[in-house]
Amino acid sequence: MRWSEIEKYQISNQQLAFIIIQTCVGMGILSLPRVMAKTAGQDAWLAIILGAGVWAVSLMFIYLLGRRFPQDTIIQYSDYILGPYLGKLISFSYILYSTLTTAFIARTFVTVLATFNLPKTPISVTLIIFLLTSYYLVGHGLKTLARIYEFLFFVLSPAFILLLPTFFAVNWLNLQPVFQIGLTELVDSTYETMFSYIGPEIVLLIFPFIKKQDKVLASSLLGLAIVMLTYLFITVIGIGFYGLLPLQRILWPTVTLLKAIDVPFFGRLEFFFIFLWIAVAFTTVSSYFYMASYSLTQLLRFEDQRYSGLFLLPIIFGLAFIPENVLEIFNYLNFIAEFGVVLTLLVPISLLIIAKLRNIKGADQNEA
Amino acid sequence: MWDKIKKFFKSESKKIINRLNLDSHKKINENLKLNLNYIKDNLAASSDLVFREFYIGADKNLAAQLIFFDALVKDELLQGKVLKPLMLEITGNLEQTEIKEQVNDTLTELSIPISGADIITSLEQVITEILGGKAILLVDQVDKAFSLDVRDWQGREIDKPGIEASTRGPQEAFNESLQTNIALIRKRLQDNNLMIEIDNIGKRTNTELAITYIEDLAEPELIDRIKYRLDNIDVDGILEIGQINQYLSDNWLTIFPLFQTTERPDRVVGNLLEGRVVLMIDGSPFASIMPTTFVQFYQSPEDYYDQFYIGTALRILRFAAAFLTISLPAIYISLVSFRHELIPHELAISLAEVREGVPFPSYLEALIMEISLELLREAGIRLPGPIGETIGIVGGLILGDAAVAAGLVSPPMVIIVALTAIVSFLIPNYEAAVPLRLLRFPMMFLAASFSTYGIMIGWLLILIHLCSLESFGQPYFAPFAPLKWSDLKDTIIRAPIRLLSKRPLSVPNQQQDRQDRKGEDPNEME
């Protein structure tokens, strides 16, 4: 490969797919089977596929917006489209959204960690270490972020092989009869999956740095498809293994599933899973942290996201202590998910329509 | 913020071109005395500096001076090949008027039977050449000087590799002489495109530096960048290639080596053939290879010389060794002090039994043992050969046994420490193994504080750092991240040699293919 080809872009399309996977898969995998069993019953798989479909449509609009403004991020082109004041409002809500998401996901993480791993360590200590590690990654920028996500995918995906033994113990009768779900319930449960799928909105921010912009849609859909398959896998195993009613009473069903596997000599598989899951959660939190600090950098025109990250660090730390217990955390996460759905589904569509109506276009990629 | 800190440290980076602080344009005068005065003024009057005055021609009518350091030149050469022909074999009256042409003719074309003879015109160069070990011939009424290469520098013979020993493959290693090292490379790589550019570095040491690459493979942009960074080095002395590495480094605060130094000519040639650039300096038996990727430190030349099963198995062992060097004590600490439930019952019981009388908590026990291990290892290197081995036995066997018998440490801890020590020697490059050894201490600290969470955080920090590193703009952790699928066949595994038909993508180069006989039947003759 020649030098000139290497330095032109920051991240490859392949890396984009991994970024989407690592951003989406995080907290959701631990609780998704329970949530799905509650809302969709044995037709949970249908809701998960539909949820991915909705996101695919959203990604298409994000892609079209990106193609229209190939050199700009949402922070910049919301200004062009809506004017400085309304545009700043949109930018600010994105920053607020990603900051809140970082805080609450990090909080969920340390809570789970305290449950399974470090019951006696104060969560403020584990949280600050987690956030500092994340800040270390964010400070290195998008290139490093993309590289480590790519690497971690291959390190972490074997964790799902651990679940394979339970797959053979699935009672397929638990998933029957199919199509029992009503239309309103289907809409409700599809909406519930949204929380597990939030993440692809990172494309709004990193679009200008991707190598082949015309193939962004394909690679991000590939990422989304892998996320969908992961969720289908754990939900089908969860429902099939436990049955609907018991599943609804298990707080973290994916971890509990592993307790059912008996490996001779090496007793506790779920610890191994939790160990790898630390990295899974880390990538999700770091993505949102990156989104928050990078959009703040663009809004305030800092030269480096290190400054804005340092500024956001204590804010995130403080916000993470707002929820008082696990149930409140779930409420806050649902609130975020709703916020996120508005920002990633409705805002890009409206921005695109307004841009078309006002006939605003970004500078061409080659003109830079 | 980081940029400002870096700027603060980098403050004085003014480039000083005129190394010797002389008037660089001063030409050699026709008057021999003036020239001599200038040289005496600007060269410290050392006792080993020789001014040999003599007359050219048997008739003794043309004065000349031979200037050299007597420690650096070969006396027989000067006597037999320079002084004798000039003083005795030139006959006839050298007329004052025609003297310039005659002397020019005789000197440049015929009279001095030495292969390395140059004509120089500036006085500054005269001084550099004298310092470089050459003999300078100045002739009265001639505005030129003759620089004669009669150097005779003492050095070591070509020896076996000291720290890069291998079972298979050539057993020659570089030595301190740049000429010998270049010869070792040229001998193995008889390519018309092999470029060796020699330059000097270090304001006072004036060390010879060779930039070696294959002209139609190495990327010109890379060579330009290397030269640019070399030009920016402004230091009085360079004694070892490792110093240059630190100056050239993209990230000068990293713990990982961003350049591979090697003493094996076969490794250098292998890397040249992949489009890399090699730097060598006179006085160092190590060559530095750039750009470097992380996996290179886990590859050993014999991986390629043996059948690929052996290479692959050894590579897997080495990567496992790297992982264990960093995390084995940390894993032990976190299992014993936090996660008893992860240890199988039978093992947990026997562990608890042997640890019963030990007064220290496991992390302190591990820390003491690991530090004493490092002390022993360092002592073993410094002590002369046979005593070093004795220290190994005394330290390892007797001390360890006594510590267990005295109830200071538990036997499993000794096993863990011994394993970590052995495992760290599997990594074929010394400079890559040392950072791993050091990193296990923060890792132990993290494990003692946060158990498995600490280990994961430690590994994430290491991986983030590895992913952020670049060597001359090339990702250091490639081909793992960014993932380059086709390069993976020469990383943890070593694919059959017929499949390695492309040069690695992780190194920029001008030609992708290195062989095109992929998968042909060797029995089939044309």
Main sheet: strands, sense, barrel of chain A: none
SSE-based structural type of chain A? mainly alpha
Number of domains of chain B: 3
Helix/strand/pairing category of chain B: alpha+beta
Q: What's the helical proportion of residues of chain A?
A: over 70%
Going by CATH, the architecture of chain A would be Up-down Bundle
- Name the overall outline of chain A: globular
Residue-averaged pLDDT of chain A: 87
Topology order of chain B in helix (H) and strand (E) letters: HHEEHHEHEEHEEHHEHEEHHHHHHHEE
Residue share in helix of chain B: 40-55%
The spatial strand order of the largest sheet of chain B comes to 1-2-4-5-3
Tell me the number of helical segments of chain B per DSSP (H or I, 4 or more residues long). Answer: 16
Termini gap of chain B: 67 Å
By CATH, the topology of chain A is Amino acid/polyamine transporter I
3D structure, described in words:
- The complex is a heterodimer of chains A (368) and B (526).
- Chain A has 368 residues and is mostly helical.
- Chain A has one domain (11-358): Amino acid/polyamine transporter I, CATH 1.20.1740.10.
- Chain A is 74% helix and 0% strand.
- Chain A is built from 16 helices and no strands.
- The two termini of chain A are 23 Å apart.
- Chain B has 3 domains: 32-148, no CATH class; 178-292, no CATH class; 304-474, no CATH class.
- Chain B is built from 16 helices and 12 strands.
- The model of chain B is unreliable at 9-20 (pLDDT under 50).
- Classes of the chains: A mainly alpha (368), B alpha+beta (526).
- At the A-B interface, helix 1, helix 6, helix 7, helix 14 and helix 15 of A face helix 16 and strand 12 of B.
